[in-house]
From TrEMBL, chain A:
GO terms for biological process: tetrahydrofolate metabolic process. NCBIfam families: soxD. Signal peptide: none annotated. It comes from the Bacteria. GO terms for molecular function: sarcosine oxidase activity. It holds the Pfam family SoxD. This is Sarcosine oxidase subunit delta. InterPro entries: SoxD (IPR006279), SoxD_sf (IPR038561).
Automatic annotation (TrEMBL), chain B:
It is an enzyme of class 1 (oxidoreductase). This is Sarcosine oxidase subunit beta. PANTHER family: FAD-DEPENDENT OXIDOREDUCTASE DOMAIN-CONTAINING PROTEIN 1, SARCOSINE DEHYDROGENASE-RELATED. It is found in: Cytoplasm. It catalyses: sarcosine + (6S)-5,6,7,8-tetrahydrofolate + O2 = (6R)-5,10-methylene-5,6,7,8-tetrahydrofolate + glycine + H2O2; sarcosine + O2 + H2O = formaldehyde + glycine + H2O2. GO terms for cellular component: cytoplasm. It comes from Neptunomonas antarctica.
């Protein structure tokens, strides 16, 4: 069970108020019509599925209904960092301790 | 292999059952195999068994990082059915169903396959339209199915609340009489024993740490215990960890790993002699031979490899079960656990060649792989033996996510996950 800090509400709330929406930082191709099948298929369906640090998008569905990003360890389930949309994570794979502790 | 029989049981009782043969060997690996299968769960062991039995390829190793059948094979809720909507998946799961029906005899191992019927409940008009459509599609594919009204459901499951007094009254159900449950561990053990009898080496507590790829073709695997073991072909059947193996091979899969939880109650006297599944209130329940109610529902929505999930998911599951069966409300839960399921965007598996020559993947079964165990092994073995995908496996290519030929089984399969 997660106890999640919503950066918009400025409070910790229980997991039930939130929905995980999958991988964060997915960039829509600027010109979709120019994509070949491989590029478009990868944009639609292929997601990072790391065993370890994962940057993901969450929504505070039963709260402020705003999106934010989370960096979380998919093995220990430890939440490493919460940051707003448009920001970049400071905790990244291979740099596990940066900005943490 | 020592065959099991009533007579054998009697004979061994004379020596206090102390002289039974070990069910499988614990071999030292050879330097080279024709086929290496990564992952010793039900699907991997079934693949090894059918490779040896149907294709005469016995120089095979199954490499398992834990113990045989210790992953999702040991963690699922043991439901077997084949009432899938689309032709491709219906054919595949029905292929498995036919193998299930003769499996105990074939393996000379009691997998306790019990065709006690599966009910998929409908609680809304749209549920009922989907059920009508799915049952019709099933019948056209030669799969048994009926649409039942609440009165008929009540006759099958008298303890279920089929009245109008619930939040989501039961409006009907699809009924597959040939569906049922099987003893999940026995399936892995039976296939392992069968494969071992043909000379397949099963290497437990051995982890594949890297793949050996030369000129775009796989030539072996690197293990933590035995170094490099060479192989003609390699099949990866590692469920939740498929993404990890794909990464070693240098390509991506459209798979996300999620925790899926299940739980059992304390053992109670026989009360439920069928399988009840509900898509809408979202839960499924059956009773094991030991008497436990075996309960499951949906995945946790976030990615996770930790083999455990969150409490809200358990709570939602229990709400659904108690809504259906108010009589269960005071039954205590005994155990709860989680497995890692590898879910595909279209809720269908990947049984496929890969960009690496001679490396084949069987994964992405998501939340419903157990029912397919023999069928999956059967078609994957044929593909590994010939180097060409079995016709039933062809639609499940990993390249469908590029060419768009998805097989959308979301929800249509009875229970959405």
């Amino acid at each position: 069970m997660f106890y999640i800090y919503c950066p918009h509400c400025g409070e910790h709330r229980e997991e039930e108020e939130f929905h995980a929406k999958g991988q964060a930082h997915i960039v829509r191709p600027i010109d979709p019509a120019a994509c070949d099948d491989k590029a478009w298929g990868e944009y639609l369906f292929f997601r990072k599925n790391p065993r370890g640090l994962h940057h993901e998008l969450w929504i505070h569905a039963a709260g402020c209904r705003k999106f934010f990003n989370m960096t979380r360890d998919t093995v220990t389930y430890e939440i490493k960092e919460i940051y707003k949309i448009g920001e970049q994570p400071s905790v990244v794979a291979g740099n596990k301790l940066a900005g943490n502790k | 292999m020592q065959r099991y029989s009533g007579f054998g049981l009697l004979k061994h009782s004379l020596t206090h059952h102390e002289n039974w043969q070990r069910v499988w060997r614990n071999p030292t690996p050879k330097k080279e195999y024709d086929v290496i299968i990564i992952g010793g769960g039900g699907h991997g062991l079934a693949t090894a068994y059918y490779l040896a039995k149907e294709h005469g390829i016995t120089n095979v190793a199954v490499i398992e990082k834990g113990y045989l059948g210790g992953g999702n094979t040991a963690r699922n809720t043991t439901i077997v059915r084949s009432n899938y909507l689309w032709d491709e998946s219906a054919h595949l799961y029905e292929h498995a169903m036919k193998l299930w029906e003769g499996l105990s005899q074939d393996l000379n191992y009691n997998v306790m396959f019990s065709q006690r019927g599966v009910l998929n409940l409908g609680h809304t008009l749209q549920d009922m339209r989907d059920i009508q459509r799915r049952v019709s599609a099933n019948r056209l594919n030669g799969i048994d199915g009926e649409v039942l009204d609440p009165q008929q459901i009540k006759e099958i499951v008298p303890h279920m609340d089929c009245s109008d007094n619930t939040r989501y009254p039961i409006m009907g159900a699809s009924w597959q009489p040939r569906g049922g449950v099987a003893r999940h561990d026995a399936v892995a053990w039976g296939f392992a024993r069968g494969a071992d009898a043909y000379g397949v080496d099963m290497l437990q507590e051995t982890e594949v740490v890297d793949l050996v790829i030369e000129d775009g073709a796989i030539v072996g695997v690197k293990t933590n215990k035995y170094g490099v073991i060479k192989a003609g072909r390699v099949g990866s059947v590692v469920a939740g960890n498929s993404g990890v193996i794909a990464k070693m091979a240098g390509f991506d899969l459209p798979i996300e790993s999620h925790p899926l939880q299940a739980m059992v109650s304390e053992p109670i006297k026989p009360i439920l002699d069928t399988v009840v599944m509900s898509n809408h209130v979202h839960g499924y329940v059956s009773q094991s031979d030991k008497g436990d109610l075996v309960i499951g529902a949906g995945i946790d929505g976030w990615n996770g490899y930790g083999q455990r999930g969150s409490f809200p998911t358990i709570e939602h599951t229990m709400q659904a079960i108690v809504e259906l069966f108010p009589i269960f409300s005071r039954v205590r839960l005994n155990r709860q656990w989680g497995g890692i399921v590898d879910t595909c965007p279209d809720a269908c598996p990947i049984i496929s060649k890969t960009p690496v020559e001679n490396l084949f993947f069987n994964c992405g079964w998501g939340t419903g792989g157990f029912k397919a165990t023999p069928g999956s092994g059967h078609v994957f073995a044929a593909s590994l033996a010939t180097g060409e995908m079995h016709p039933m496996a062809k639609p499940f290519s990993m390249f469908r996510f590029h060419d768009g030929a998805l097989i959308d089984e979301h929800g249509a399969a009875g229970v959405a996950h």
